[in-house]
Design goal:
alpha/beta, Rossmann fold, GMP Synthetase, Chain A, domain 3, 5-stranded parallel sheet, 9 strands, 41% helix, globular, binds xanthosine-5'-monophosphate, purine biosynthesis, GMP synthase [glutamine-hydrolyzing], EC 6.3.5.2
Amino acid sequence: DWTSTNFINSTIHQLQAHLGNDKVILALSGGVDSSVSAVLINKAIGNNLTCIFIDNGLLRKNEFDKVLKGYEHLGLNIVGIDAKDYFYRELAGVKGPEKKRKIIGKGFIYIFEQEAKKLKDIQWLAQGTIYPDIIESLSITGTTIKSHHNVGGLPEKMNLKLVEPLRLLFKDEVRYVGRELGMEEHLIMRHPFPGPGLGIRILGEITPEKVRILQEADNIFVSRLYEWNLYSYVWQAGVVLLPIKSVGVMGDERTYENAVVLRAVTSTDAMTADWARLPYDFLAKISNEIINKVKGVNRVVYDISSKPPSTIEWE
Ligand code: XMP
């Protein structure tokens, strides 16, 4: 039978046997998968693992600092890189979701490679890939449903061997493992967050100003979910910035500003999802707060679509 204790013990043994004295590099995303992967590999090979955390300018508000601080105490050897400007330049004028994904994925590889070159004798690349990532990247009809940037690409290009200790696990199993490894509950229970980040929640072209608007709105939504004890009822939540403006009134003046969508779903594996039945009072409060505090937003709507057919992300 599968237990997290058995899984951890056998994985640590396998990692030690496989990796020996080799050096491993891992890209930390701040999410559960990559961090559980990092802690597990760190348990097996210690400081032979170096973690890289890249700020691509599409992270949640204050996420970069929070992750760097939060992971210090886990004993991980982490390098943080601020690459915001690079990503904004590469993404300027680009509108299509898959094109944006490709650019963000490629940019990520580029920045990551620059850092990897500074470290010596790296032979392995570790990734936090889990089972649903693999399934979703498989082709059923000859076309990929969506490209997941944490599957494929990096290792071939960098001539590194791939180590993916969580590739057979579902999300709930990853969480059991993290808990067993002594990771804090707020890290374990973090909602999933896509690799391309806010980049696929800003529909159409990405600009630093749109990122600011989305970060502010998203921060209000997620912080209030915590405060109302709704965070763990929800599988994943975030705000989407629409590429349309609508009319509003503010005092005596007409406004013509952005609309945002609140997206919150319940799920067990992200393959199917239902929209979360959040309390009306909560939604009312979030809507007021976003419209009052986030400059550039005058309308908030709630997404009541389930997956399938509607995906969790809008792009
Ligand atoms: P969808 O939108 O397909 O999302 O229902 C399912 C889960 O996958 C995440 N997602 C991504 N994760 N790179 C990622 O690392 C991506 O390009 C990507 N697209 C979607 C999404 O946030 C949800 O958890």
